TrEMBL record:
Keyword Signal part of the UniProt annotation: yes
Keywords from the named record: Coiled coil, Signal
Organism listed in the record: Halobacillus faecis
Signal peptide start and end residues: 1-24
The UniProt record lists the keyword Coiled coil: yes
Coiled-coil ranges from the UniProt annotation: 334-361
Region spans: Disordered: 573-602
Segments of skewed composition (Basic and acidic residues): 588-602
The protein's name: X-X-X-Leu-X-X-Gly heptad repeat-containing protein
Amino acid sequence: MRFKRATAMFTAFLLILPTVPVSAEDNGTTEPEGKGSYSKKHEVVYTTLDASGDQEEMYVVNNFTIEEPGKIVDYGPYTSVQNLTDVTEIQQQNEKVELNAKEEEYYYQGNLEGKPLPWDIDVSYQLDGEVMNPEELVGKDGKLKVSIDTTKNEKADESFFNNYLMQITMKLDSMVYENIQAPEGTVANAGKDRQVTFTVMPEKEGSFTLTADVTDLEMESIEFAAIPSSMSIDAPDIGGMKNDMGSLSNATAEINQGVGELRNGIAELNDGAASLYDGSKQFNSGIQGVSNGSSELVEGSASIQNALQQMNEAVASESGEVNVSGFAKMEEGLRQLSTGLNEVEKGLTNLKDQYSQAHQALSQSIEAIPGYQISEQEIQALRESGADQEVVNKLVETYQAAQTAKGTYANVKEAYQAVGPALEQSAGSLNEMTTNLNTMADQIGTSMESMDIGDSVQQLQEGLQSLLSKYGEFHEGLKDYTGGVDQLAGSYADIHSGMGSLTNGTAELENGAAELHEGTSELASNTSNLPGEMDSEIEKMVEEYDKSDFEPTSFVSEKNEKVGSVQFLIKTESIKKDEEQEEAPEKEEEKSFWDRLLDLFR
């Protein structure tokens, strides 16, 4: 029924056709009446590449949004043009293209030769590690590696490279490709296929690889779509991160302040250690001097003791007839003995003074060591602060050595303090004995002139025996004392050497603490404005990829105006078996008006 109706309509149309004059517009030869205008022009550049990425064919589909129908002028070095909207003929003279636009959206195609793309594209293939040409891969099995590189083409307008985002898509049959790996891309399911996508940012060159296990290899075309990266990029919300960075900045400032205080404390410790070493040096010198003179002191005391013994024996052996000249010699011997004891007394007094000075210097140096009590938690926090571990270890070792020295001195402080009074008491005893000897000598001299010699001898003998007894006790005490001094001198030499090492360690530690403080100061300075620096860096990143202010220009000719957009659709040849290659469709002959009219009834 529908067929009969259509036939009737077509017959009626043919009957009235001779009565209707055919206008020139219908045969596509009429020029438009007046000049037309358009609001926007859009270009889509279609390009085919061989499987290796070498350019083969290119054509551009131009689209105009018509404001006023009429004559439109466009430009491009086309080898040929084709109207895709109606059958109106397009006039081309050199690079000038004139068309008659009636529809609101008008399309025409222009074919190009030798026009370079903004990107150089290279695709290479390896099978089981061997570089192969694309045609050699068909039907092969093995481990496939595809490398895709996109670089800037210096022969093309760089504005497209600088402002366009390129997306590369590979469609792979899951029956052919397994274990697909694309480190720089994303792999997604697309039905029974796998779709691999890579992205190249504006102003960047891309280098991508894909590996897969293949069986009976075939590959669809690789597609490259390049569009303007014109979307506006909003800065991410980093409020929480900025708070964290602010806390980090405050923490580094506190660490730097703590390290500064630590450095000051170490400087005080080093000064105290230096003072301790100086005092120890004086004490060591004094005690060594005393030790060196101990033998002479004991020998002198022994000589005095022998002289007293001989004097006592001489007095005891005297007969009733007293030799006055012997008493004169005894008087002289007693005075010489008194003089010797007096020298010993001066030596002990001098030793006491030197010891007191050395002990005072040692005490002041030990007291100068700070008594900080640093806990294990504080030491562990310092180790975890990021400071140089070698410096931290030196700090801890020096702190422990200083506290050990301070504690050791506190334990022996009373022993050191007792030495001075003992020396003073010994000197006092010698002074008393010197006085007694002088008294005895004076009594002997007087007795020879005015007293009974017998009674004087008796008194002298008793005095000598008493003096000899007391001096024996003194001599034994002196030997014990000098023995202790010798032992103290030997032990203190090791202590003094250790104090020297301590001083060197604290000096090195102070230098290390100074370097550590410089490092933490630099760290605190560099992190003092982390939130602001984050904002600045994010703004730079947004500016780098925000191409929203890009004004597109024509890819075909700089003479073209009102360009709204330019897009690129690029694809490589597929890699398939010959018998399955799709034959290129035969180019349809351009249909006439009558053919198009008849199509309405077919």
